[in-house]
Specification:
This protein is of the alpha+beta class. It contains 2 helices and 5 strands; from the N terminus they run αβββαββ. It has a single domain, classed as HIT-like (HIT family, subunit A, 2-Layer Sandwich).
């Protein structure tokens, strides 16, 4: 974990969060600035700055995040099995925090294109 990373601090419990799910490798919590009625952040506990920094050995970790999103999407009544999973990579794509994370949003009809 990174000493100064916001998400690493959340994982360590230094910054409070509304936890949704936690495993050995990932942490899921409610976004404090939601853009939809349901807005969760799914993060890796291992500090990886972006998808561009992934290594082959991280494929299982990213798969675990996708499976967690599926589990949440299938069990959260507000989502009704309809949700969007977003991962921005790089500043021009909207990545604000340099730590791999996915946004799971839903609970309303989502428009396309998103950006």
């Amino acid at each position: 974990m990174s000493k100064n990373c916001l998400f690493c601090k959340i994982v360590r419990g230094e910054i409070p969060s509304q936890q949704v799910l936690e495993t050995e490798n990932i942490f899921v919590f409610e976004d404090i600035n939601p853009i939809a009625p349901v807005h969760f952040l799914l993060i890796t506990k291992k500090h990886i700055s972006s998808l561009n920094e992934l290594e082959e050995k991280d494929s299982k970790l990213i798969g675990e995040i996708i499976m967690a999103a599926s589990k949440i999407g299938n069990t959260n009544d507000k989502l009704d099995k309809n949700y969007r999973l977003i991962c921005s990579t790089g500043e021009k794509a909207g990545q604000v925090i340099n730590h791999v994370h996915f946004h799971l949003i839903g609970g309303r009809e989502l428009q396309w294109p998103p950006g």
